[in-house]
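User: Okay, second chain of the day. Same drill as before: sequence in, structure tokens out.
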Amino acid sequence: MTNSTKTLVELKRNSLEEAVDVLSQAFYDDPYIHYVLTGHENEFSSGIRDIFRFVCEVYLELELPFIGATFNQKLAGVACMSLPEKKKWPESLVRKSLEMNKSLGVSLIASGGIRSGVDIAKAIAIGADICGIALPFLKAATISESEVEKLINKLVDDLKIAMFCIGAKNIEELKKTKALVKI
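Assistant: Same drill. Structure tokens below.
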């Protein structure tokens, strides 16, 4: 009987390409990955690697838990874990995200922490095509259908006000705005 060793290790930047290999192989047949990369069949292998390289870079850059499972000193699995506190993305990651989105020709969905029409405007202004909102709708839905309608109207009104304040007449102009200011 052979002795095999299994360990958990914290992955660092020098493990990036090995982690990308493991994740790419694990998700190679995933239907969502195939959907995202539809139309990129000739570049499928590089596209899936680009997606997981970006995911790994996000975890490393934000110093989120990024754990590898090794078997006989070879990386066999990767676990990426989210933390409950919000971490601000550095501008370099935002730019990489937008570049990857553009190169793959997929929609960028902003979700998680979107609570107002102003949040929607900010997300669209930095490159989001779609915004997902859950918690405000769940809270309103527990009260009544009319509360959901009120929420929708408030989100739309706040978005329109934010667009007016920066001089965007429509969503396309909002996407191209240079009116965002870093603070």
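DSSP finds eight helices and five strands in the chain.

User: Thanks, on to the next one.
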